[in-house]
């Protein structure tokens, strides 16, 4: 089973003068910030989120890369698998920080490449809080060949898994991670009586490969990939990276039915204003009220 590199991100953050020589070398490594948002229909999403992704890349001294469609029909034309191009970037870069396009990054977000040790894969281990993806993980483990899969201590029936919306990849793991491509070819063609779990596409593949090769997973924590996994969204502005997967921090029963893009646009305005951001961070009940309305 895979090893957990660290369950406490704070322990791995740079510590003033206590940086080791290895940490200083890691900071100098060539880094890319990559994302994928293909097609004319996704232009509004690109216009909304790319500025914060580009600003983040510039801030940490990384190249910004937006993937074009590169795999054609290799994965049956399913665009989700274009994310796997991040693995191929490791031929050129020492570290690749992959961010889904439906993400907003705060201006205070630190360099994830400095926080995740180079022998680890950095990601938010969502199974610490949620059982949602367990059926998918069980299905891929059966479809691609059962492996020894690390389980959650809170419930041994739950397979450990991370959300692939934010990933920190390292050249040290490139060889093992490349196996995700043929694995994805098999997974996207897998047919069963219940194909609902296939919607997750790339995420179970990456988890399967990480477990198969015992790649240590460094849990970056929810503050660097704030989804609904914890069942709480009102405190999302205390996080550095907000991810609008799934219900996109929208609540049931709200007065105005908003789209994902509208919800993100509202939050982007809050993040862009230091004053509004500070209020949203300090008074989550106001965010809760806003979420009940739109």
Would you kindly provide a written description of the structure presented here, covering whatever features stand out?
By secondary structure, this protein is of the alpha/beta class. It contains eleven helices and eleven strands. The strands form three sheets. Strands 1-10-6-9-4-2-3 form a seven-stranded mixed sheet, sandwiched between helices. Helix 5 crosses helix 8 and helix 10 packs across helix 11.
Primary descriptors:
294 residues; 11 strands; two-stranded antiparallel ribbon; globular; 11 helices
Q: Can you describe this structure in just a few lines?
A:
The protein is built from eleven helices and eleven strands.
Please write the string of helix (H) and strand (E) elements: EHEHEHEEHEHEEEHHHEEHHH
Q: Approximately how much helix is present in the residues?
A: 25-40%
Shape: globular
- Residue windows where pLDDT falls under 50 for at least 5 positions: 6-22
Q: Can you list the strand order of the major beta sheet?
A: 1-10-6-9-4-2-3
- Which secondary-structure class do the elements indicate? alpha/beta
Mean pLDDT: 89
C-alpha Rg, in Å?
19 Å
Cα distance, first to last residue?
A: 43 Å
Fraction in beta strands: 15-25%
Please report the number of helical segments: 11
Described by strand count, sense and barrel closure, the largest sheet is:
7 strands, mixed
Number of strands: 11
């Amino acid at each position: 089973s895979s090893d957990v590199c660290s369950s406490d991100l704070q322990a791995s953050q740079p510590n003033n003068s206590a940086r080791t020589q290895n940490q200083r070398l890691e900071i100098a490594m060539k880094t890319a910030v990559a994302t994928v948002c293909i097609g004319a229909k996704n232009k509004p999403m690109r216009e909304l989120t790319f500025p914060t992704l580009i600003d983040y890349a510039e801030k940490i001294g990384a190249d910004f890369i937006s993937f074009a469609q590169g795999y054609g029909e290799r994965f049956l034309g399913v665009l989700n698998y274009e994310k796997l191009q991040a693995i191929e970037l490791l031929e050129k870069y020492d570290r690749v920080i992959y961010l889904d396009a439906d993400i907003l990054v705060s201006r205070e977000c630190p360099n994830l490449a400095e926080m995740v040790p180079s022998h680890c894969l950095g990601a938010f281990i969502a199974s610490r809080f949620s059982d949602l993806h367990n059926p998918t993980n069980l299905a891929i483990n059966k479809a691609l060949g059962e492996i020894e899969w690390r389980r959650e201590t809170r419930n041994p029936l739950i397979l450990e898994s991370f959300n692939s919306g934010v990933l920190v990849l390292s050249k040290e793991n490139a060889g093992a991670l490349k196996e995700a491509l043929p694995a994805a070819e098999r997974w996207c063609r897998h047919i069963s009586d219940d194909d609902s779990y296939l919607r997750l596409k790339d995420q179970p593949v990456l988890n399967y490969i990480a477990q198969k090769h015992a790649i240590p997973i460094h849990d970056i924590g929810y503050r660097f990939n704030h989804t609904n996994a914890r069942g709480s969204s009102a405190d999302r502005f205390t996080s550095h990276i907000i991810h609008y997967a799934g219900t996109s921090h929208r609540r049931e029963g709200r007065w105005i039915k908003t789209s994902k893009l509208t919800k993100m646009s509202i939050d982007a305005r809050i993040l862009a204003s230091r004053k509004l951001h500070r209020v949203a961070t300090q008074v989550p009940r106001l965010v809760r009220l806003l979420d009940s309305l739109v």
